[in-house]
UniProtKB/TrEMBL annotation:
Residues modified to 4-aspartylphosphate: D54
Residues of the Response regulatory domain: 4-119
Keywords: Phosphoprotein
Domain of life: Bacteria
Originating organism: Evansella vedderi
Protein name: Two-component system chemotaxis response regulator CheY
InterPro entries: CheY-like_superfamily, Sig_transdc_resp-reg_receiver, ST_Response_Regulator
Keyword S-adenosyl-L-methionine recorded: no
Pfam family for this entry, one: Response_reg
Length: 120
């Protein structure tokens, strides 16, 4: 069965880019969220094997959402998507239980490497 992924990013084109990389490589994108609160709801609904989580989003940011998801499911596998210059937030996220991080602009190879390491 294909690995189920929830993509979280406030930018539709970023979600589209990740989705494209994932679906071309045999992953199943079960849902997409545009903010942290929606991510929590969709996580409950779909129990994905993996989440790609943007850091900067309106309303609820990715680190808060990560923490809530990990509270609900301590085994949740979340990879953070960061922009340049967000090192401090990436460290926060890793301490809060994120498994890895990928930096925008995304390179397909790096995205796939982070995911296969995280789910293995
Ligand atoms: Mg964003």
């Amino acid at each position: 069965m294909a690995t189920k992924v929830l993509i979280v990013d406030d930018a539709a084109f970023m979600r589209m880019m990740i989705k494209d990389i994932l679906t071309k490589n045999g992953y199943e994108v079960v849902a997409e969220a545009g903010d942290g609160a929606q991510a929590i709801e969709l996580y409950k609904e779909h129990s994905p094997d993996l989440v790609t989580m943007d850091i900067t989003m309106p309303d609820m940011d990715g680190i808060t959402s990560l923490k809530e998801i990990r509270k609900m499911d301590p085994n949740a596998k979340v990879i953070m998507c960061s922009a340049m210059g967000q090192q401090a937030m990436v460290i926060d996220a890793i301490q809060a239980g994120a498994k890895d991080f990928i930096v925008k602009p995304f390179q397909a190879e790096r995205v796939l490497e982070a995911i296969s390491k995280t789910i293995s």
